[in-house]
Structures are given as C-alpha cells and as structure tokens.
Write a structure and sequence with these properties.
Layout (H helix, E strand, L loop, with lengths): L1 H11 L9 H23 L1 H8 L3 H17 L1 H10 L5 H18 L3 H28 L5 H30 L7 H25 L7 H8 L2 H37 L3 H29 L1 H10 L2 H6 L5 H15 L3 H11 L4 H30 L1 H8 L15 H9 L2
Helix pairs in contact: 2-7, 2-8, 2-9, 4-7, 4-17, 5-7, 5-17, 6-7, 6-9, 7-8, 7-17, 8-12, 8-16, 11-12, 11-17, 11-18, 12-13, 12-15, 13-16, 16-17, 17-18
Length: about 425
C-alpha cells in the first residue's frame, strides 16, 4: 500500500522540480526493456529466418536495414512533432503497431511479409524512443545522467535478453515463436497507459514556456560551433552503431563458421556483450554526472579500440572475456551521449533524442546492410576484421566542447 501511495504521489508531481521521480523512471525503463527486447529479437533470429527461407546474407542485412531505418530515421520526425505538440498517448499507440508487427512476423509466409512486419515494429519503436527520453528528462530532477541511464539500461537489458529468448523460444519453436512477443507488447501497452496519464497530468500542471529572446540571440552566435559539435556526435554514434550491428548481426555467423558452434552456443557471446553493455550503460550515466560526459564518450571508444582489434584473432576463451569487456566499455556512453546532445541543444528534447538514438542508428543500419553484402563477397572473417577498426574514430571526440564549456554557453545569458 505504501508503494502504491508513493507512485500516486509521483504522478502528481510536476516535471522540472528538484526531485528525481524514480517510480516514473523505473516504469519508462521497464517499457524500454520490453520494447527493445521485441526489436532486438529480430536480428537475433536472423539465422533461423536464413535457414527457413533460404535467404542470402544481403537479404538478412536488408531485414536489419528496413527495421532500423524505420525505427531510427523516423525518430527525429516524431521527436520534432512532439517538441511542438506533446502527445502523451502516442506512447501506447506506438505499441499497438509493434503488436501487429510481431503477429505478422510469426505468421509470415514469405520474405515480403517479413519486411512489412518489421516496418510495423520499427514504427512502434520510432514513436516510443523520443517520447520515452522526454519522460526520463521530465522525471530526472537534478540527476540527468542517472535518469537517462535508468531509462537506457532498460533498452540495453532488453537487447541482452534477445539472444536468450532466441535460444529458449525460437530454437525449439522456430519462426512461430514470435507469437509470444505479442504478450510482451500487450504488457508494455498497459504500462505506457500509466505513464501517459502522468505525462498528460504533468503537462497541464507545468506548461512549457518559450525561451527568452536574449537567450535565442546568444545561442544564435554559437550555432556554427553547435552544428559542428552535433556533427561529431553523430559520427561517433554512427561508428558505434556500425560496430554494434557487426557484432550482433554477424558475429554469431562468424562463430558458427569458424568454430562450428551451434546457434544457441553462439548467442551466449552476444548475450555477454549486451548484458555487460547494460551494466556499462547504467554506470556510465552516473559516472558522467561526476567525471564529465565528453570524457565518458572518449573512454568508450579509446578503451574499446585495443579489444576490438584483438577479438578476431583470439581463441574462444579469450573471446568470452573480450566480448564482456567490450560491451561494458563501448556501451558505457549509450545514455551519456543523449544527455550531452540535449545539453548541446537545450529545449529540443524530442528532436535531439531522435537524432542521437534514432537517426544515427538508422545510418548504422545502412552499415548492417553493407556488411551483409560484403560478407557475401569477401567472407565473414573480413567483416569482423573491418568492424574492429571502427572505434579508432575516437580522436575526433577531443574536438567536442567540454562539459564546462557547455555550461558557460548557456549560463552566460
């Protein structure tokens, strides 16, 4: 009863107060977990779809491309729209699209229906992510890094569960196992209705005000520097997303071909990468509140680079270790970069979240399709060697303004 009263009280508090509303943050994190479990299951069952429908690596890459281009490229559009016109009940409506997408995937008789189904899943994800990030920002209080970590760790945990779901559900049941994920979509819908109620009540209690003209004028003089910094941020996420796509989509094939592992054995490596990445996501946001967001972003690439270069050349024992460490390090910046970009362009939470979580991942989806085509031509070994080079992009991050500089920009008005 005390917990119910605590949650009810949280729903009546408005955003922008000094309190961090943990019940709302945990609720949106749970939805993020459920949403990303569903989305991550699709690349996790690539080997099953490949065998069942006789697909090429390029066709597999195109499924990932269609899913991610829909889920990612549309996020800035929804984010920009809701920056102008906040729409709390878009959250549960998006999950309706995901529900029908998973139903279609379970029953898909051919490749074309698979593509149409993943479009529906992608639309549901595109609706959720900008608004989910906005809810986390509204409930953050003074702990923005921690709040985004709580929100993002749900998504990363969902991705980590996908390989386990594949081993437990899809290996014994095949493609039809996707029907069980309609239950997850229904559960996420129910939680989102609760969040939407709080979101709507919060908007009525605390309507947004327009920024002062002086602030706009001051920000206008910094627009070239802000644009360059945002470009670097997107390059950073682009490289990280290509690496993520290469590992999650093609490393299982690499393990199966090189070491003769079974699918469920290969998925353990992906689980280690994503599980440790969820831990890194949670700790990274909290550490960035103390040590700086740019520093955490640099660490996530600089620290991972030696390990990614070693991974294609080690035995299975060391591969377990490197996958765990790599996931922790490279995904420690997952929530950090979102908060950094929101502070770089304040007042545009939805659009910025769509860019950092969405558009850049959409560009990374192009990498998944390209890698699939290259794997058909050059072999899966070469793909693993080429993706290992991506973290070497880290030197460009030193060109970003530091956290102190960002504070000076927006406290000088």
């Amino acid at each position: 009863m005390a917990q119910v009263q605590h949650v009810s009280a949280a729903m009546n508090r408005r955003p922008g107060t000094s309190m961090t509303l943990y019940p709302i943050l945990f609720a949106i994190s749970i939805v993020h977990l459920l949403n990303d479990t569903i989305q991550a299951v699709i690349p996790a069952i690539f080997p099953i779809l490949k065998d069942a429908m006789g697909l090429t690596y390029f066709q597999i890459g195109m499924i990932g491309f269609v899913l991610n281009i829909t889920a990612s490229m549309m996020q800035p559009v929804f984010g920009l729209y809701t920056d102008i016109r906040p729409s709390p009940y878009l959250l549960p409506l998006g999950m309706v699209s995901t529900f029908f997408g998973m139903l279609g995937l379970a029953l898909a008789p051919n490749y074309a229906v698979v593509l149409a189904s993943v479009v529906l899943v992608g639309i549901g994800s595109a609706v959720f992510h900008p608004e989910g990030s906005r809810v986390a920002s509204m409930a953050a209080g003074p702990r923005r890094g921690l709040a985004q970590s709580i929100y993002q760790v749900g998504g990363n945990s969902g991705q980590a569960l996908a390989p386990i779901m594949t081993a437990l559900i899809f290996v014994p049941l095949g493609q039809r196992g996707a029907i069980w994920f309609t239950v997850i979509a229904a559960l996420a819908f129910a939680v989102q209705v609760y969040i939407a109620r709080w979101y709507r009540a919060s908007l009525s209690l605390h309507p947004r005000s327009k920024p002062a003209a002086g602030r706009d004028d001051a920000a206008g003089g910094r627009r070239p520097a802000v644009a360059m910094a945002m470009f670097i941020v997107l390059l950073f996420i682009f490289a990280r997303s290509w690496y993520h796509a290469g590992i999650t989509s093609y490393y299982p094939f690499y393990l199966i071909e090189k070491y003769g592992l079974r699918l469920e054995q290969a998925q353990i490596f992906i689980f280690l990468f994503l599980f440790s990445g969820a831990i890194g996501t949670f700790l990274g946001g909290a550490l960035s509140d103390r040590f700086g967001r740019r520093n955490l972003m640099i660490f996530s690439m600089l620290g991972a680079a030696p390990l990614t270069l070693l991974l294609p050349h080690v035995n299975l024992l060391w591969a377990y270790v490197i996958m765990f460490l790599n996931g922790f390090i490279i995904l420690s910046s997952f929530s950090v970069v979102v908060v950094y970009a929101q502070e770089l362009i304040p007042g545009k939470v939805g659009m910025v979240s769509g860019l950092t979580i969405g558009l850049a991942f959409g560009l990374g989806a192009i990498g998944a399709a390209v890698l699939g085509g290259l794997a058909d031509t050059y072999g899966i070994d070469k793909i693993m060697e080429w993706t290992a080079l991506l973290p070497l992009i880290f030197p460009i991050l030193f060109l970003l303004p530091g956290d102190r500089k960002l504070r000076q920009w927006y406290e000088s008005n």
